[in-house]
Design brief:
about 280 residues, alpha/beta, Rossmann fold, eight-stranded mixed β-sheet, 8 strands, about 15% strand, globular, binds adenosine-5'-diphosphate, binds magnesium ion
């Protein structure tokens, strides 16, 4: 059994290496740091920049990408465990241009999924990958095997943290686990909910002090997203903040993150704008 699982992994791995499609996992150690919001809004940003995007909700048990879009889904990732079902059968269109695969249904079934099942799902994703330019995967938080499996599947890993020490420590634990499992992915750090760009730099430095000391690994700081009421407001209204309030500080950060992801250039600093500086002053 184990042999077959590793054969499948090798097969999936070598296929991924040949793809022109980018596979980007969005993950974190600690829960609630903003993964789903970032995965969704970055996906929409990348689509708006002219690329075809498939967003996959692989957060087993806490799947909620569709909730953030206000969509009722008909299909889910779990259906890919059926022998005949293809990615094209479960990917749904959204009003924001991106396609998505929901993760909400069949939680119990998914929890029974073996590594082989997961690999079979991943193989189908790889087979369909070239239908789009970019695949964004919202993984769960932490170190369970579903999370690790989907991280290992990606070649780019957006590691999301806040500046809280506990979140940084948990982010380190994810990097460590992925390294131990032989991840080929390149880590890029996004610090969410910062009050200023210094907080981003300090957080990236703190994480890298540890990863460099113990793992001899440098996590590229990709950028940051401001703490911004527009995010929670959009969550309540079930509309992505990047669409609902494109001029909000968080949306402008997402825009810069997208352009950094697409061009490989450093994220440009984002000003909060006078409206928001005044708002936080009077708070
Ligand atoms: N930049 C931000 N500014 C303000 N609140 C945020 C921000 N990012 C996330 N949040 C809040 O955190 C909550 C959890 O975000 P979510 O994306 O669901 O996290 P995760 O997927 O990591 O569990 C959101 O509902 C929102 O209220
Ligand atoms: Mg989430």
């Amino acid at each position: 059994m184990a042999d077959q699982a590793s054969r499948l992994r090798n097969l999936v791995d070598s296929k991924i290496d040949e793809l022109s499609t980018r596979i980007i996992a969005v993950t974190s150690g600690k829960g609630g740091v903003g993964k789903t919001n970032l995965a969704l809004n970055l996906a929409i940003g990348i689509q708006k920049a002219g690329h075809k995007v498939l967003l996959i909700d692989a957060d087993i048990g806490m799947a909620n990408v569709n909730l953030l879009m206000g969509n009722v889904t008909k299909h889910s990732l779990v259906e890919l465990m059926n022998y005949r079902t293809r990615v094209e059968d479960v990917a749904e269109d959204s009003e924001y241009g991106i396609k998505y695969i929901s993760g909400i249904a069949g939680v119990d079934k998914m929890l029974d999924a073996s590594h082989e099942h997961l690999r079979a799902i991943q193989r189908k994703i790889v087979d369909a990958a070239e239908l789009v330019d970019v695949i964004v995967i919202d993984t769960g938080a932490g170190l369970n095997r579903y999370v690790i499996d989907f991280i290992l599947f990606a070649r780019e890993i957006l590691l999301v943290t806040t500046s809280e020490p506990a979140a940084i420590a948990d982010a380190y634990a994810v990097v460590k686990a992925c390294t131990e499992y032989g991840s080929k992915g390149k880590f890029k750090l996004i610090v969410n909910r910062v009050k200023d760009s210094d907080e981003w730099k300090e957080t990236a430095e703190r994480l890298n002090q540890t990863t460099q000391k113990f793992l001899n690994l440098y996590v590229e700081p990709l950028g940051y997203v401001y703490e911004d009421d527009a995010v929670a407001d959009a969550v309540k209204k079930q509309e992505p903040f990047f669409v609902r309030d494109p001029d909000s500080p968080a949306s402008r950060c997402v825009k810069e993150l997208v352009s950094s992801l697409l061009t490989g250039m450093k994220m440009r600093d984002v000003s909060k704008g006078w409206r928001n500086i005044l708002k936080s002053f009077f708070k």
